[in-house]
Amino acid sequence: MKTAHHRQREVAGIVEHGRENASPEGLRYRKKLKARLAVERAALELVIERGYDGVTVEDICARAEISKKTFFNYFPSKASVIMGRIDAFPDDERLLEILEEHDEACYLDVLVGVVSTTVSAGVDDEIESLRREALRSMPQLFFHGQRDLLAVQRSIAAALRSYLCERPERRMLAGGSVEEEALVASSTAIGLARTRSMLHVCGEAAPTSSETRRLIATYLSAGDDTAG
User: Fold this and answer.
1) What span, in angstroms and rounded, lies between the C-alpha atoms of 108 and 192?
2) Distance of alpha carbon 40 from alpha carbon 127, whole angstroms
């Protein structure tokens, strides 16, 4: 039987596996990766030194010794280079397949794993260390890119509507409509993914999706006990 930890590692590897398959191996790929990491390193060092608002794309380009055109070949914005490259989120059809492939797991944990992997995957320990330092000192950076997250939420809700209509036994919100559950689940998945990332920044290791969900559930239940 697979443990929750093993299932979480599988979920976290879905998007990463797709990225590896899509990335050409060899010298060209390694050169591009090295250049991208150099841009991330320059941006993070500057933000740690000056603060997010004190750094411009021009500053990053000057530190990394690249042109603005090269910068935008790698990153769509200043926020994206600070948070780490945000890969394309799975489309509705692929997201539905992911849910079906992990039918034995809590669908909310599966979604949190996909969102977390897409947002925070890293390939270099030094870059990850710099990113954690920047985010610890400026947690407001977690709230950049809201429009990207709204698009992610719409994709999650659309996939969940199809998934829950096909598998009503998997539903978690008793008494509500599928539309209502899809809305609640999609916004909750994004919130849990962000909380998981912030816990990782503040601690040593990232909690699993299920650990994050249980932590939040415990916290919310304590609120009921206090009110009672």
Assistant:
1) 9
2) 7
